[in-house]
Structure formats: structure tokens, C-alpha cells
Backbone:
């Protein structure tokens, strides 16, 4: 992992270049060059005399390739510096030759994430937005994409701004009191301060609590499929995924290991986990599988309890914060009129697909609006920082209770502001920057 010294961030008078498209052969590849000399370095290789800003220019790059060059003049570029993007043919040879030509005439190879680091250093992005860019690049599911976009410029980014503003207001109010006390004036009314603090605390708590949901949404909401052997759990998994993922057989105890698959419904991704059927057994392999089933159950936010409808079922009474859905499978084996119909039960036939639509609906309802919220907290670094803000605010609250002098209260408030600042990078350590930008590939 590269280490970013503060001095390195400040020192940006060199020009960097990298291939910004993925390694491999493609239709086209983009080589990017950024820095004070980007334009001069690029133009020496091109068959045109000038590049106009923001115009794509078709020209020749040395005798290597026909390319399209686009010049973004500072500060109107991703990095905030002069940048030239050269789109060449996607041959490995051409990409490397173009990059090499640029580095031989004054640019140096960029480190991982260095373009985005420069964007941060030039105030184009704050730290949480830079992290969102990494998440956006990594996003595979619609939910990951939505959360990354929200962190980049959506509800979540807005929420952080609001929190910061409220903290600043609070501090200002307290400093007013500090000013007064210097003039030896008694400033007794702290009720407004209290009110602001309470509002702030409530919002902060909601955000902190959204972390478990945020994480689940990002990775896929864990849904455990549990039940006795042979009830049709694996058949149900396959039917929901529309894929022949798990082995199905009439032999009880077929599934030994947990088997996962992703299912996306209306933009929400669920991580379905088929498990080994729960029963008493002497088979040591099956026992291991059953232990894994229990673990999958514990970690799940939603549990599908599958029963064979011809065999009856037990009621479930739990209050563990999970959503429980009772699935009566093999409904094709009994007459429609004889099916048990209760609101919390869903009759399905994993075999012929009956009732699967109702089950999908129940899955969506189980997470409901919570998963669609775009102010969910998903980043563990932010989570840690917000917890520290929370602790500092609790100390402020206590100090107010104990009627501490304003300057003591102010210390904790500033502490809260400091920790909030670490999220956006208003205050950032080398270590933090290194771990964030080290996540990127070269060229980003
Ligand atoms: N008629 C009918 N048979 C089904 C249905 N679903 C599953 N089966 C059959 O039930 C048997 C067991 O199915 P599995 O999906 O392997 O059951 P399981 O719950 O995963 O079993 P274990 O992995 O052993 O715990 C197979 O013969 C399936 O074809 C259904 O909806 N209707
Ligand atoms: Mg199975």
C-alpha cells in the first residue's frame, strides 16, 4: 500500500500518467495524464498543433496509433489540474507504448488512487466522496450503486452536512456564552443549547443505528432458508434464483454445506442462504453442516422457515429482531381447498413455481422502506467516527447536567466536531489517506 505523506499531497508540481481503463484488451483504452505539464507533454506526441479544452480531437499519437485526445483545462477536470485523456485502440502494446512515450517526456507513473487523491487535495471531492468513488467503481448490484451515489452526492452526503452545520451552530451558541462570561455576565439560559443537542443526538443515533441495515443492503440482505431435511429448501433456493445451484434429491440430508446466491428484487439485493436440514444425526459431516445452518440463522435478517405442507408445522414465537416468513412448500401435493391459509403463511410449490410471486413480495415487505432509505450508513470508518461524535456529545450532555462552565463544555464539542471532520477529511491523517486511496487501482 502506498503511503501518502502530507507533504506529498501538498507537493503536486509533477505530472502523472496511467492507463485508466482495466488491464486487458478492449475496443479502446484511455491513458490519462494530469498535472502542470500534462498539456505540454501530451501535445508533443500529437499530430495537431493545439487541443481546445473539452473538445475531442482525432489525431495521431507519434507513429503508434490514431487516437482521440481530450483536454480538460484546470480547474475544470476530475483532478482539478490540467488533464489530457488519450483514447487509443485497446491493444496491450498500444496502451503501453502511449504510456511509455508520455513518461519518457516528463510524466511519471501515477500511484494507485493518485488521480482521486489529487482531486481531494484540490478540493474537488471530500474524503467521504472519494470513498464513494471507490465504492461506485466496485459496485455490482443496484443497491451498491445506489448507496455509493448517495454517498457521492445524495441523501447521505446531505445528512453529514446537516450534522456538521448543527454542531457548528451549537458551538457558536456556546462561544457566545464564553464571550459573555469574559465580561463577567451571568448567562443562565441553556435551554436552547439543550434543545439543539437533543435534536442532533436523535439524528446521530438514527444514522449510527442504520449501519447494520446499510451493511446488509450493501452486501445483500442475508436471508436464511431453514427447516427440517427434505422439505424442499434447496428446491426453493433454485426456484428463487432460477438457477440449478444446489443439489436436490429425495434423500434427507442432501445439503451439507451452506449455499448462497444473490437475488435482486426491485433494486434490493438479497443474499439467499440454503442450509442443511436441522435434525439429530450421528453423521459428523452433517453435524458440521447443521452448525453452519445455525450460524446462517443467527446472521440472517430474514428467515424463511420451510415446511412440507403435507406434514404440518410448528408455530414460531421469537422476538429476535429478525423477520420470519413461514413457507408451506409442496402445496402441489394437496388440494387448493385444503391448504392452510393464514396471513403469515405462504403456500408455495418450489417444484412448479406456485406462490413464488407472493414469496418475493413478502421478502420485499420484510425489509420494506428501511432498505430503500438512501441515508443508510455503510462505511465502517464513518461508523467509528460517528460513534466518537456520539460519545463526545454524551459528555457534553453530562457537562450541561453538572452545570459545568462553558469552556469545559466547549472542549467536548470541539472533540465532536473533530471526529465529524475526519469523515469528510477536514482533518485527515496520513494513515487514513493511505488506506483510503490505497483501495483504488492505478489509473483511478
Ligand atoms: N411435489 C413436490 N416436491 C418437492 C417440492 N419441493 C421439493 N420437492 C422434492 O422434495 C425432495 C427434497 O427436496 P430438497 O430441495 O432436496 O429438500 P431440502 O430441504 O433441501 O433437503 P435437505 O437438503 O436434505 O435438508 C426432492 O425430491 C424434491 O424434488 C414441491 O414443491 N413439490
Ligand atoms: Mg437441501
Residues:
Amino acid at each position: 500500500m502506498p503511503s501518502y505523506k502530507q507533504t506529498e499531497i501538498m507537493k503536486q508540481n509533477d505530472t502523472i500518467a496511467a492507463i485508466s481503463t482495466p488491464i486487458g484488451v478492449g475496443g479502446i483504452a484511455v491513458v490519462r495524464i494530469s498535472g502542470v505539464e500534462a498539456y505540454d507533454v501530451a501535445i508533443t506526441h500529437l499530430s495537431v498543433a493545439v487541443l481546445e479544452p473539452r473538445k475531442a480531437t482525432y489525431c495521431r499519437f507519434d507513429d503508434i496509433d490514431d487516437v482521440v485526445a481530450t483536454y480538460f483545462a484546470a480547474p475544470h477536470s476530475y483532478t482539478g489540474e490540467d488533464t489530457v485523456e488519450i483514447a487509443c485502440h485497446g491493444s496491450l502494446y498500444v496502451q503501453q507504448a502511449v504510456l511509455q512515450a508520455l513518461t519518457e517526456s516528463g510524466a511519471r507513473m501515477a500511484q494507485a488512487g493518485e488521480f482521486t487523491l489529487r482531486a481531494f487535495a484540490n478540493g474537488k471531492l471530500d474524503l467521504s466522496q472519494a470513498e464513494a468513488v471507490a465504492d461506485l467503481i466496485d459496485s455490482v448490484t443496484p443497491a451498491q450503486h445506489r448507496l455509493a451515489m448517495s454517498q457521492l452526492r445524495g441523501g447521505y452526503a446531505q445528512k453529514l452536512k446537516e450534522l456538521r452545520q448543527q454542531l457548528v451552530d451549537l458551538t457558536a451558541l456556546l462561544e457566545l456564552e464564553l464571550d459573555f462570561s469574559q465580561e463577567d455576565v451571568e448567562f443562565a439560559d441553556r435551554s436552547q443549547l439543550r434543545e439543539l443537542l437533543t435534536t442532533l443526538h436523535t439524528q446521530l443515533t438514527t444514522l449510527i443505528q442504520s449501519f447494520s441495515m446499510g451493511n446488509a443492503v450493501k452486501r445483500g440482505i442475508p436471508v436464511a432458508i431453514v427447516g427440517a431435511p427434505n422439505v424442499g429448501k434447496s428446491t426453493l433456493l433454485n426456484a428463487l434464483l432460477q438457477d440449478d445451484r444446489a443439489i436436490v434429491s429425495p434423500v434427507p440430508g442432501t445439503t451439507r454445506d451452506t449455499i448462497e446466491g444473490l437475488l435482486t428484487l426491485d433494486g434490493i439485493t438479497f443474499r439467499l442462504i440454503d442450509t442443511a436440514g436441522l435434525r439429530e444425526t450421528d453423521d459428523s459431516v452433517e453435524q458440521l453442516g447443521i452448525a453452519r445452518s445455525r450460524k446462517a440463522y443467527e446472521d440472517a435478517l430474514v428467515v424463511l422457515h420451510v415446511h412440507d405442507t403435507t406434514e404440518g408445522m410448528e408455530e414460531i414465537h421469537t422476538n429476535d429482531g429478525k423477520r420470519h416468513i413461514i413457507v408451506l412448500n409442496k402445496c402441489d401435493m394437496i388440494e387448493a381447498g385444503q391448504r392452510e391459509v393464514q396471513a403469515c403463511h405462504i403456500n408455495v410449490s418450489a417444484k412448479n413455481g406456485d406462490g413464488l410471486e407472493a414469496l418475493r413480495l413478502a421478502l420485499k415487505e420484510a425489509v420494506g422502506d428501511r432498505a430503500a432509505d438512501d441515508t443508510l450508513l455503510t462505511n465502517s470508518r464513518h461508523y467509528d467516527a460517528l460513534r466518537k461524535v456520539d460519545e463526545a456529545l454524551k459528555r457534553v450532555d453530562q457537562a450541561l447536567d453538572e452545570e459545568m462552565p462553558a469552556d469545559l463544555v466547549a472542549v467536548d464539542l470541539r472533540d465532536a466536531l473533530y471526529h465529524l471532520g475526519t469523515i469528510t477529511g477536514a482533518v485527515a491523517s496520513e494513515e487514513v489517506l493511505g488506506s483510503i486511496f490505497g483501495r483504488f487501482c492505478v489509473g483511478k
